[in-house]
Amino acid sequence: MCNALVDQEDHSKRKNFLIKYVGDCLGTLLMTFKAPFLPLFDELLPYLMPMWGKDRTDEEKRIAICIFDDVAEHCGDAAVKLLFTGLACVQSMVELHSDHMLAALSRLDVVIRRPDALHPDNVMAYDNAVSALGKIWQVHRDSINVAQVVPAWLNCLPIKGDLIEAKVVHDQLCSMVERSDGELLGLNHQYLPKIVGVFADVLSAGKDLASEETATRMINLLRQLQQTLPPSAMASTLSSLQPQQLALQSVLSS
């Protein structure tokens, strides 16, 4: 039995060494050839995608993140399609070991901070990056800098490109407000005006950005806030809304 365990450990070490070697090679090729290398990289995807699987080790997942991080860093606009594929994988592996969160967050940050992130060609990747950021925050809030992640995530809302993902993200926001998440609301409710503004934008979009159930919950939350907050605080929050959000006042008064 001891021999079997030793053999298994040796096999695991050799496997990790080989995977790391492949990752290093791909990183070098991406750094050297940049976007012209992407067609060949695309052909390799069927062999790389299993590295994100739940049955794979943290080391394999870390290397997969690093590979796609190299794609984002060295291939620019040509990499958007591949980044979208990678983001879907990040969302499926939010239980990734906390040691690798910085790499995942760094990669998401690259997508979110692109100057043309909201361009029609890029907005799907952007929306999925925002969604992944929120999910990572929920699962790994003890392992990340919440003071940076929370305002960054809120500032991206509402998302409007990927309507399926939008409903998921806005439902997540609604659930967090319902449980009075202190990190979301911020010190002295400093993020409340932004949250109310997001609710207003989502509600004004009809059924596009939220399910009927989520929209109803948002309205109930807003009415609850109106009843529990000091009148001056709610008035200040409403006064900060953009013109397109002012219709919210009629919802609250109905």
Automatic annotation (TrEMBL):
PANTHER family named in the record = IMPORTIN BETA
Location, primary (coarse class):
cytoplasm
Signal sequence, start to end:
none
Name where it's found: Cytoplasm
The organism is Helianthus annuus
Swiss-Prot/TrEMBL GO biological process terms: protein import into nucleus
Q: What is this protein called?
A: Armadillo-like helical, importin beta family
- Note the SUPFAM superfamilies from the entry: ARM repeat
Q: Which InterPro entries match?
A: ARM-like, ARM-type_fold, Importin_beta
What lineage, starting at the top, does this entry show? Answer: Eukaryota, Viridiplantae, Streptophyta, Embryophyta, Tracheophyta
